[in-house]
Amino acid sequence: MSLAILYSRAVLGTESPLVTVEVHLSGGLPSLSIVGLPETAVRESKDRVRSALLTAGFEFPQRRITINLAPADLPKEGGRYDLAIALGILCASQQLKKVPVHEYEWLAELALSGELRGVTGVLPAMLAAQKAGRQLLVAQDNAQEAGCVQDTSVLAASHLLQVCDHLQGRQRLTTIEPVMGCVRHVGADMEQVRGQQQARRALEVAAAGQHNLLMSGPPGSGKSLLASCLPGILPELTPAERLQVASLHSIAGLPVSAVCAGVRPYRAPHHTASAISLVGGGGIPRPGEISLAHLGVLFLDELPEFPRRVLDVLRQPLETGDILISRAKRQVTFPAHFQLLAAMNPCPCGYFQDGTGRCRCSPEQIRRYQGRLSGPLLDRIDLQIQVNALPAKSLLQAAAGQESSTQVRARVVAAWSRQLQRQGYSNRGLQGADLYQHAALAATEALLLAQAAERLGLSARACHRILRVARTLADLEAAAEIQRHHLLEALAFRGTAPGGSAG
User: Fold this and answer.
1) The predicted structure's pLDDT at residue 502
2) CB atoms within 10 A of CB 404
3) Would you say 342 and 303 are in contact if contact means Cβ atoms under 8 Å apart?
4) What is the DSSP pairing of strand 154-157 with strand 213-216?
5) How far apart are CA 165 and CA 222, in angstroms?
6) What SS3 class is residue 268?
7) pLDDT tens digits, one per residue of 416-459
8) How many C-beta atoms surround the C-beta of residue 434 within 10 A?
9) What was the pLDDT predicted at 337?
10) Is 93 helix (H, G, I), strand (E, B) or coil?
11) How many C-beta neighbours within 10 Å does residue 398 have?
12) Cα(408)–Cα(452) distance, rounded to whole angstroms?
């Protein structure tokens, strides 16, 4: 038979569409052509495949070889189709006879020596292959990623000859065993934080309700340390959430072992990052930082140093929880339900109102610096606190009585459980009728909020966010209703950072 048909997988957003690899040998001058919208790396696979077959001891057919990657309108990129193309040539030239290649999907790049190399996007391909009822075969480089998912049937090989031996029944490959015992969290612990009781409390509230948090304070006040503690007090990802996040990291070529162990992602891009690096993009769209922080934390240090147009791209994902990337031929939607954690200095030099008198910035400089953050962006940040510098004497004292991340996390997990039992999602998502039902106020508390909104000039969105924070404070105390002290504490967390007093 001069025609062989095999299956592989492409990458398109968070999906992994099927690609049928058709290899046909015919008479004519020796040549090899690849059709089906291949990009440069795919077109170059003919040279990799030729060398891999020859070095592995096979013959390269001296015939006209046509390779079709279907569907023809789906862009193909990378070396992920090399193995399927090589096996197709071997089957079409009868060097491999009567082997069940149609029972598998192939996803690996070939080295010139015939060794298999890993590719990106293995995890979504695994799930798609499992749904289609076929086994996926990947390179040994991807074995660890494949083993992070339970109940999957994936094979791994390190060389083309191993694959051929498996197909011919000479030496069968074994299914990848699930990887167990991953570390749940690596990072700072809350007990390392000296003092900063309000900041510690704000961090706990932010974790308990998935609220966005902005910390403002002078250099060295502990903002970055506090930020690094947040992943350690968040609940673990559920099994369904692990697959979502791991698929995004797999597409981006990032390790997925920690995510598959339940650790929520923590992304901290530098302030020189572009808008494209945050939202994602490219000719074939890839996820950006906000999608890689899906169901986790996006930490933006030195927030005013980010270009304003870069920060403004966060506004829509913060509300909708996803990002739509449009290109001329297709649109791709990436999930982006992240928790924003930001830190900033109060002025260009950083020492405004720190009590030392070191600040030499003029009022106009301070106004321009704080004005780099737009009102609509600040309006989407639930908690805005001032982190004051601690005296050196306090820093040298032992951290007696400081709670650890494990202790704080127990309260956070309990609060999350109450929210899931009551409304099925975190308090951050409360809106509309659900907000007024689950965060209802008594008459005296409602009057207090109305007076505060009028005095502070809070927008309707800011009032809603105060209600959500107050609901979270009540959940931390296992209170059925929002009480006066919950509302007062929620108001105290709103507008104490520079630029945030207007809601």
Assistant:
1) 37
2) 14
3) yes
4) unpaired
5) 58
6) coil
7) 999 999 999 999 999 888 998 998 899 999 999 999 888 888 88
8) 14
9) 95
10) coil
11) 7
12) 30
Q: For residue 380, how far is the Cα from the chain centroid?
A: 20
Predicted confidence at residue 288, as pLDDT, reads 94
The CA distance from 58 to 253, in Å, is: 32
Q: Which amino acid is at 50?
A: R
Nearest to 382 by CA among 499, 498, 493: 493
Is residue 231 within 8 Å of 296, Cβ to Cβ? yes
Residue 101 and residue 139 in contact, taking contact as beta carbons nearer than 8 Å: no
From the CB of residue 429, how many other CB atoms can be counted at a distance below 10 Å? 16
Q: Copy the structure tokens of residue 88.
A: 């197709």
- Residue 487: count other Cβ atoms within 10 Å of its Cβ: 24
Measure the CA–CA gap between 116 and 140, rounded to whole angstroms.
Answer: 7
**CB proximity list for 54: less than 8 A, separation 6 or greater:** 60
Q: Residue 237 in contact with residue 295, Cβ under 8 Å?
A: yes
Q: Considering just the CA atoms, what is the radius of gyration of the chain in Å?
A: 28
Cβ atoms of 284 and 11 closer than 8 Å? yes
3-state SS assignment for residue 52: helix
Number of other CB atoms surrounding residue 67 within 10 Å? 25
Q: Token pair of 345, please? A: 């200095």
Q: In sequence order, which ranges of 371-442 are alpha helices (DSSP H)? A: 375-378, 392-396, 405-422, 432-438
- Which 8-state DSSP code applies to residue 387? -
- Residue 10, phi then psi, degrees to nearest 5: -95, 180
Looking at residue 358, its pLDDT comes to: 86
Helix (H) or strand (E) holding 311: helix 308-312
Domains parsed from the chain with CATH numbers: 3-167 (3.30.230.10), 190-492 (3.40.50.300)
Q: How far apart are the first and last CA of the chain?
A: 72
* Separation of alpha carbons 177 and 314, rounded Å: 40
d(CA 267, CA 294): 10
Task: Give per-10-residue mean pLDDT for the chain (503 aa).
Answer: 92 92 94 93 94 97 96 92 97 94 96 96 93 94 84 90 96 82 64 86 95 92 91 92 92 88 92 91 86 96 92 90 82 92 92 82 91 87 88 59 88 95 92 89 91 86 90 94 93 62 39
Burial class (CB in 10 A: 0-12, 13-18, 19+), 340: buried
Q: What digits encode the pLDDT tens for the residues 111-143?
A: 999 999 999 999 999 999 999 999 999 999 999
pLDDT the model gives residue 495: 58
Token readout for 268 is 């901290």
pLDDT score for 503: 40
